[in-house]
Amino acid sequence: MDFRIISLPPFTAVTSGPDPDFDFSPNGVLGKFNDYFSAITPSPRDAFMPRDFLFFNKEAGGLEWWWALEEGMPDGGHEKVAFDGGIYLTYVYWDHDEETNGKLFQEALDYINSSEAFELDERPGHYAMGHIITPPEVIQALGNGMMEAFVPVKLKASAQS
Q1: What residues are paired with 147 via a beta bridge?
Q2: How far is 68 from 61, CA to CA, in rounded Å?
Q3: How do strand 62-68 and strand 11-15 relate by DSSP bridges?
Q4: What gap in Å lies between CA 100 and CA 111, rounded to an integer?
Q5: Which of 67, 61, 72 has its CA nearest to residue 32?
Q6: Which of 25, 31, 48, 62 is most buried by a 10 A CB count?
Q7: Using one digit for the tens of pLDDT, what is the confidence trace for 117-150?
């Protein structure tokens, strides 16, 4: 598998808070958070970048969703968090295809572990995460969307000299 290595900038986000039930139903924590940010239209300047990131918060034991705010965006009464940015290895797969995701995630870890340049950079608030990259109208037409997975990496000290 060929992976992309990208950089995400620091940003302020609002959080759904960790949901141990993984509840995307209309009345669930994640479902309500999805409704909140889906009603926001980013400015054209910011519409091209991913704004929402879903990840498993290991410390809290729940699925957590972040929405990157831009100046003047409503926070919907949600708690704000600071993301420090970083380098990520990315790959794509069809959303809900957990078998393929698991296989690609393992390939990503194998690549990182054998790399002379990178090492895994998981830490509180800095986990592997995902973002749907398919536009909503295309998801509706196809019945599914593509998920981009982001695996945090950093340069090894030996690669920086």
Answers
A1: 93, 132
A2: 22
A3: antiparallel
A4: 16
A5: 67
A6: 62
A7: 999 999 988 899 999 999 889 999 999 999 999 9
Q: What is the pLDDT of residue 65?
A: 95
Range list of H helices, the chain: 29-38, 98-114, 136-142
Handedness of CA 47, 48, 49, 53 (dihedral sign): positive
Could you read off the pLDDT of 40-94 as tens digits, one per residue?
888 787 776 788 999 999 999 999 999 999 888 889 999 999 999 999 999 999 9
C-alpha closest to that of 123 among 34, 57, 36: 57
In this prediction the pTM is: 0.89
**Confidence at residue 1, expressed as pLDDT on a 0 to 100 scale:** 63
125 near 81, Cβ under 8 Å? yes
Q: How far is CA 40 from CA 35, 61, 137, 140, in A?
A: 9, 28, 16, 19
- 56: enclosing H helix or E strand: strand 52-57
